[in-house]
Amino acid sequence: MTRNATKGSLKKWMGLALTMVMGVSLLAGCSSASDSKSTEGGASSDGKRVTLKVEIFDRGNSPSPHTITNNFISKMIQEKFGDPNNIDVQFVPVQRSEEVTKLNVLMASNTDVPDIVFVYDSSVFYRYAQQGGLADVGELINQHGPNLKKFLGEDTLKFGQVDGKQFAIPGKRAITGRYSSYIRQDWLDKLGLPVPKTTDELYTTLKAFKEKDPGQLGSKNIPMGMALAPANFETLIYSFIKPVSGDLTYGQRYELPLHEGFKDSMKFLNKLYNEGLISKDFSLDKDKTQLGKDVSNGNIGYWSEDVDAMFYGEGTMDNLHKNVKDSNVLPVDVYTNPNADNKHIKSRYGTNGMYIMIPKSSERSVEAVKYLDWMASGNNLIDIYSGVEGENYELVDGIPVVKEDATQEAMDRLFTSGDTAIISNGKNIGDEATNEKAWILGFPTNNQEMLKQSLTIANTDTVGPIIFDKPIEAEMKYSTALKDKLDVIIVKTAMAKPADFDAVFDKEMADFMSLGGTELKKELEQAVQEMGAK
After folding, report:
1. 391 to each of 385, 402, 409, how far by Cα in Å?
2. Which residues neighbour 135 within 8 Å (Cβ) at sequence distance 6 or greater?
3. Cross-strand pairs, 337
4. Computed over its alpha carbons, how large is the radius of gyration of the chain?
């Protein structure tokens, strides 16, 4: 299908888009003409100016006068990469919260899809690859991406291969630590309580926070902050489930119910909810907005978070110290897992970041690879992530260190930095220890020590995702329905009356299994056995 599509063809593709959103199938069409253009130099090589369309997440946080598509970084990219190569780089915004749904529609439209797209969900990537929607970029990388190939390395590139073909360019994750937990030390001090070190001790502490109200908050007192967000429910669930093999678990979040111990985690959450120990309306807070407000206002005694989330300038931690005099927060590693020798089990990221893909219908695959190769060259990643030396940062031992006195104008220019530097999830400076040091130095000085402690916790007793050497078909078929169902299971089992917990859990799990969980469980277990036999 070419860009001069007929109305009938477009109608056909929009129909496919609707089935995609429902998680049924994807079929991105292409013609032989598109195939040939994908492997040749493209119009930019013969002097004609062309447009390269690149997806970017829109988080709704654009500071004036910037926009998500017109800002300091987009102008820098145009100046340093676009203009010298006779390319107009056009960013296509996609709401972060609707990335997969929107991407499905774009991929199915064929004419509106950007030349560079990406997704974190491996099952979505596999579906696109298997159904013919993606360009094989292996030879393109060999020809036009020497810096990119060196930066990523063969081990990372393997994450983007299906049946020996390179259908995605995986981003390289700089840091694999994921979550940490926190407690109000000042609340403990007022009650003369020690820092809890186990799940049982945490429960006792939460009860004391509720009954004795050390913050004198009355009805605003929340012993444990909770949201319907991974940083909150995953930390709890992982402290109960049994790893599948060694220090590995199934890789997709919606596969958590298939682990031994999942029911125990839900029973504990039910206990916390019914005893009034967690945020009452957590089910309405999927983006952690209310959780952040409650932490900032000093209403919460204990909570879990993404390891870096609270430590940005004028962020949650700074606001708490500003709003509550003498507040004192301590990073803690509390949850203990009875199915893993009572270690403080928590999830870690895989070593790959997002899956960067070039649709097979794209006429700018060469330019796309050249763009990613440019990003991996010289100081370009540092420029995207860190801004202007002397204004945003100073180099210390080769590491960009944020200037404490950077102006608001200078800080605002970097609001798209992480979402633009797609080949690098986090600041890749060297090995992981160096990356962690560089990352910590990018935060305000007053928060660096606490972030360092948080990262140590996030790296302790971690379990990572199993990386299968082939796609899991059931993931592609059922991921959308099972993602939604996981949220339903968490909410309904948490809010059930204790006497009804078993019946509610069994019903919701039966629904989960009927929605594809049974096929998924069978295929995952078979894939684990096959990997063990190799």
Report:
1. 13, 9, 10
2. 38, 167, 357, 358, 359, 360, 362, 365
3. 343
4. 24
Residue 355, strand partner residues = 119, 170
pLDDT tens for 438-471 read 889 888 889 999 999 999 999 999 999 998 878 8
Closest by CA position to 57, among listed 44, 68, 73: 68
Which sign, positive or negative, has the C-alpha torsion 492, 496, 502, 507? negative
Q: Pick out the chain residues at pLDDT < 50.
A: 1-44
**Is the omega angle on the peptide bond into residue 65 within 30 degrees of 0, that is, cis?**
yes
Is 5 in contact with 89 (CB distance < 8 Å)? no
- Measuring CA to CA, which residue among 469, 480, 483 is closest to residue 528? 469
Please compute, for residue 173, the number of CA atoms within 13 A of its CA located in the half-sphere on the CB side: 15
Using an 8 Å Cβ cutoff, are 46 and 83 in contact? no
pLDDT (tens digit per residue) in 28-49: 333 333 333 333 334 445 679 9
Please spell the DSSP secondary structure of 18-87, one letter per residue.
HHHHTTS-------HHHHHHHHS--GGGGT--EEEEEEEEE-S-PPTT--SSSSHHHHHHIIIIIGGGTE
